[in-house]
Design brief:
- The chain has one domain (3-211): Beta Polymerase, domain 2 (2-Layer Sandwich), CATH 3.30.460.40.
- 45% of the residues lie in helices and 19% in strands.
- The chain has 9 helices and 9 strands.
- The chain has a 5-stranded mixed beta sheet with strand order 2-3-6-5-4. Strands 1-9 form a two-stranded antiparallel ribbon. It has a two-stranded antiparallel sheet with strand order 7-8.
- It is globular and about 50 Å long.
- The protein starts with a strand and ends with a helix.
């Protein structure tokens, strides 16, 4: 299993997300509401990128939940005095508190869903005094590589930050890359070309899975 190296979320050139009182309190309330109802979740998005890789400012909270749990999760946030909205039943619901938006996401590009292996591997990391279940760094790299586009170049840099900061389980990452192997391969070749630690075996495995 990978070992995330906990980074100081106030380090670096990016404006820190941690220390925003409204964001910190809203994340704490959202996590408490889901955990009180025993609803599994994983922190993803910019906050996960900050904890696992490079600091990045955001005022959104992205929580990844199982599709069958999505409505129950939204109801739990409603009971915790969030304003809630069934935004799009295909992939996302939203909740707002203190003018901070919590995105409850249950489908991601690449046909990615929360599964048992993600939950079993999720590190438990601290955000402003609140222990949070965070998506495994390998899964975050895969997701960021897949969702990267011209309008959102930060996803590519977020993924590179995770590669640089975490001791990754390369076999697991290669297996998870099935959701978007070409994009993950491109990212890892670029990372290796920039002297980040990426194993040759992983490059070869992804290349073989695509081209034989």
């Amino acid at each position: 299993m990978s070992t995330p190296r906990r980074l100081d979320a106030t380090a670096g050139d990016a404006e820190p997300a941690m220390g925003d009182d409204a964001l910190d309190a809203t994340l704490r309330d959202a996590v408490a509401a889901l955990e009180a109802e025993h609803i599994p979740y994983l922190l993803i998005g910019g906050l996960a990128s900050t904890l696992l890789g490079r600091p990045r400012y955001t005022r959104d909270v992205d929580l990844f939940v199982r599709q069958p749990d999505a409505l129950r999760a939204l109801a739990a946030l409603g009971a915790a005095r969030f304003e809630t909205e069934e935004t799009n039943p295909a992939w996302i619901y939203k909740a707002v508190k203190r003018e901070v938006t919590v995105d409850l996401i249950f489908w991601l590009t690449g046909d990615i869903y929360v599964d048992d292996e993600m939950l079993a591997r999720a590190p438990r990391l601290d955000w402003a005094g609140t222990p949070i279940s965070v998506i495994p760094p390998e899964d975050l790299v895969v997701i960021k590589a897949i969702v990267h586009d011209e309008q959102n170049p930060h996803h590519w840099h977020d993924a590179l930050g995770v590669v640089a900061a975490c001791d990754l389980d390369w076999e697991y990452l290669a297996a998870r890359a099935r959701h978007g192997a070409r994009r993950v391969l491109a990212l890892l070749v670029y990372a290796q070309a920039n002297d980040l630690v990426v194993t040759d075996e992983t490059i070869r495995a992804l290349h073989a899975s695509l081209y034989g």
